[in-house]
Design a protein that fits this description.
By secondary structure, the protein is of the alpha/beta class. The protein has two domains: 2-104 and 217-249, D-Maltodextrin-Binding Protein, domain 2; 106-213, D-Maltodextrin-Binding Protein, domain 2. It is 42% helix and 19% strand. The chain has twelve helices and ten strands. A five-stranded mixed beta sheet has the order 2-1-3-10-4, with helices on both faces. It has a five-stranded mixed beta sheet with strand order 7-6-8-5-9, sandwiched between helices. Helix 2 links the parallel strand 1 and strand 2 (56-60).
Length: 259
């Protein structure tokens, strides 16, 4: 009877020890906004080349990630496409602090080169192009900051009423971009960083839109509470000279002071 009790005690103790340190049994996870895919791939490669471990990287919409993290999804770092979602997580006690603005995104209009559509900032020409288009792709404004910026831009130039019934909504900016590149939509709004990717440049053309016609797309990142040391290292690396050079090359602006 005694030996049974000791064995049972040791089994329970082992189980408790496993539960006490769950992070060690998991791969660190990073949630990255879809507009950052190419830039972050390059940044992460440089990070790994410096001798750091690989992590699980997931790309998607900032709104979806924020909701998942609020509900306990095991992400350790959130690299968002805007400020509001990370700051909401901070206010709800999910993050170490308010994080840092690491980049400022730029909005472009995109079309497939073979479509024959000529993009032009002249309002009359732009109205003609939008009126002629069958479908215009944007990311869902309630989930993706670039989708929200697209709506702001269309309203600012007075073309919302012309465009609104032609809009097709994607869950994230990567999918909206794919709608255009595959020909599923005649036009689309996307991030300059995605439009500059080598794959897209081969088959699409883009027009950089006036940044004064939509709210600045300040992209913020936050460390989630309990993040392991390697994730903290990546967070710091995102603020390094190397990472900032990659962001500039990818079409982002940099904040004058990271805050």
């Amino acid at each position: 009877m005694k030996s049974f009790s000791i064995g049972k005690y040791l089994g329970v103790l082992s189980f408790c020890l496993l539960l006490s340190n769950p992070v060690s049994a998991q791969t660190a996870s990073v949630a990255v906004a879809a507009n950052m895919k190419d830039a972050f791939t390059a940044i992460n490669s440089a990070f790994i080349a410096s001798g750091k471990p690989e992590m699980r990287i997931v790309y998607g919409s900032s709104g979806n990630f924020a909701s998942q993290i609020m509900n306990g999804a095991p992400f350790n770092l959130f690299i968002s496409a805007d400020e509001s979602y990370p700051l909401e997580l901070y206010r709800n006690g999910k993050t170490v602090d308010a994080g840092k603005v690491y980049a400022i995104g730029k909005l472009v209009m995109l079309t497939k080169s073979s479509s024959g559509i000529k993009l032009n900032t002249d309002k009359t020409e732009l109205a003609r192009v939008i009126a002629k288009a069958n479908k215009i792709a944007i990311a869902k404004p309630e989930l993706a900051p670039y989708g929200r910026a697209a709506v702001e831009y269309l309203k600012a130039v007075g073309l919302w009423d012309v465009a609104k019934d032609k809009l097709v909504y994607a869950d994230n900016i990567g999918m909206a971009t794919m709608f255009v590149s595959t020909g599923a939509a005649d036009l689309g709004f996307t991030a300059l960083s995605l439009a500059k990717s080598p794959e897209l440049v081969k088959e699409t053309s883009y027009l950089l839109l006036d940044e004064s016609l939509y709210e600045p797309i300040k992209q913020r990142m936050v460390l989630i509470k309990g993040a392991p040391p390697e994730v903290s290292d990546l967070y710091q690396f995102m603020q390094s000279t190397k990472a900032r050079q990659i962001l500039l090359q990818s079409g982002y602006s940099l904040p004058s002071n990271q805050q």
